[in-house]
Amino acid sequence: MKFKETGEKDSDLLIFIESENDPSESYLAYATSCKLDYSNLRPIVGLVNFNLGKMDFSPEKFEENVDTTVHEILHILGMSGHLFNTFIDENGDKRTNVIVNW
Ligand SMILES: [Zn+2]
């Protein structure tokens, strides 16, 4: 895969989108960061998976679907428990005493 080795020119974040169609599952979508920049620990690759079997694509659900997409992208950008301990402070130092409370 081209992006795996070379990344994408002039991009800061690459998001892969995939889907499943499983109405027996309970989730609409999930997302995660897949790779962090070693220099600043910021996400540079992420993945969003939509469960088409649980989504409603009628026009009146458009905004809900946008909200779901934004929500999932925020997980990639850092609002995710496994990334909290990679946050850095204004000096570029890793934050300590990160509390993850689910
Ligand atoms: Zn979520």
Nutshell version of this structure?
It is built from three helices and three strands; from the N terminus they run αβββαα. It has 102 residues and is α+β, with helices and mostly antiparallel strands.
Topology:
Blueprint: H1 2-6, E1 14-20, E2 29-36, E3 43-51, H2 62-77, H3 81-84
Parallel strand pairs: 1-3
Antiparallel strand pairs: 2-3
Zinc ion is lined by residues 71, 75.
Folded structure, characterized:
- This protein has 102 residues and is an alpha+beta fold.
- The chain has one domain: Roll (Elastase, domain 1).
- It contains three helices and three strands.
- Strands 1-3-2 form a three-stranded mixed beta sheet, with helices on one face.
- Strand 2 and strand 3 form a beta hairpin.
- The radius of gyration is 16 Å and the shape is globular.
- The protein binds zinc ion (ZN).
- Zinc ion binds at residues 71, 75.
- Residues 71, 75 line the site of zinc ion.
